[in-house]
């Protein structure tokens, strides 16, 4: 199967040469294939967001290589990678432009990676029809609110819209960084279900960070657990499908030699 992402011996240290020097990623080797939906779990500070950030190109790696669709992108900047990568962050305010309307946000998403000539070109009628069709999939009645300012939407509506924007032009890779963590449990569950539907419909290769072990087990076909900058658990397909939270804790203990003490993971 086609490799979408390949990390080889990736290291990242922050604040090198200072008393706060922090070796966050310690030789990550990881290959993700077309259509894989990978959930990532790990305690606070394990390096999960850093992993997503180095894939997206927020900052360079110190050692190792990153390839997207067989092309090495290790030295490419975030802007150059953004055409291939869709992202949804934890904070509902980050993925959308507050002062713009729903249709303007979607038009910007449609022009991702191109010259952003939105305000010169305007939004075509055919584009508006397309946006309405896409918004219907969210089942939030947003297709009737194309001219509403995004700042007026609830957190859940904004995350659903951000998800749509991140996937409007099919990305090679979708990165979800705890994108439901700021939502109430009911809204979080519905945005997760929507995520699963969008990922399945478009067969998107997806990385999803979560703090919730049950969600990490429920969604996706592969689960990775990060601990102290290393991958300590990597299970896929049937093996993953058969795991319970307690099996996962046992596996973590066996592979890392430690017990999981992070309350935020255990209580989620
Ligand atoms: N830009 C940065 N500069 C300096 N240190 C950073 C930077 N980004 C992350 N770190 C540090 O790297 C470590 C790993 O952070 P990271 O955000 O990747 O962890 P995480 O597994 O996502 O944790 P959490 O679940 O708490 O979000 C932390 O100690 C963090 O303080």
From TrEMBL:
InterPro entries per record: AAA+_ATPase, ABC_transporter-like_ATP-bd, ABC_transporter-like_CS, ABC_transporter_ATP-bind, P-loop_NTPase
Localization annotation: Cell membrane
GO CC list: plasma membrane
GO molecular function, one term: ATP hydrolysis activity
Chief location category: membrane
Domain of life where this protein originates: Bacteria
Membrane topology note: Peripheral membrane protein
PROSITE patterns (UniProt xref): ABC_TRANSPORTER_1, ABC_TRANSPORTER_2
Keyword Transmembrane appears in the UniProt entry: no
UniProt cross-references to Gene3D superfamilies, sorted A to Z: P-loop containing nucleotide triphosphate hydrolases
The protein's name in its UniProt record: Putative ABC transport system ATP-binding protein
Organism for this UniProt entry: Isobaculum melis
Source organism phylogeny: Bacteria, Bacillati, Bacillota, Bacilli, Lactobacillales
């Amino acid at each position: 199967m086609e490799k979408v992402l390949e990390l080889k011996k990736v290291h990242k240290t922050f604040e090198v040469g200072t008393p706060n020097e922090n070796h966050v990623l310690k030789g990550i080797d990881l290959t993700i294939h077309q259509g894989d939906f990978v959930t990532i779990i790990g305690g606070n500070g394990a390096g999960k967001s850093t992993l997503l950030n180095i894939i997206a190109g927020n900052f360079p790696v110190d050692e190792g290589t990153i390839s997207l669709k067989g092309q090495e992108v290790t030295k490419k900047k975030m802007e150059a990678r953004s055409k291939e990568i869709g992202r949804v962050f934890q904070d509902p305010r980050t993925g959308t432009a507050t002062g713009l309307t729903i249709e303007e946000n979607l038009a910007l998403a449609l022009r991702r990676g191109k010259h952003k000539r939105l305000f010169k070109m305007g939004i075509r009628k055919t584009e508006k029809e397309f946006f309405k069709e896409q918004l219907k999939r969210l089942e939030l009645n947003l297709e009737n609110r194309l001219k509403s300012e995004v700042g007026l939407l609830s957190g859940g509506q904004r995350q659903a819209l951000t998800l749509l924007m991140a996937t409007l032009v099919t990305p090679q890779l979708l990165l979800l960084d705890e994108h439901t963590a700021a939502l109430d449990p009911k809204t979080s569950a519905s945005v997760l279900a929507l995520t699963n539907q969008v990922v399945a419909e478009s067969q998107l290769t997806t990385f999803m960070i979560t703090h919730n072990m049950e969600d990490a087990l429920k969604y996706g076909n592969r689960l990775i657990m990060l601990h102290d900058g290393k991958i300590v658990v990597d299970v896929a397909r049937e093996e993953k499908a058969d795991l319970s939270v307690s099996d996962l804790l046992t596996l973590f203990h066996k592979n890392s030699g430690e017990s999981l003490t992070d309350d935020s993971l255990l209580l989620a």
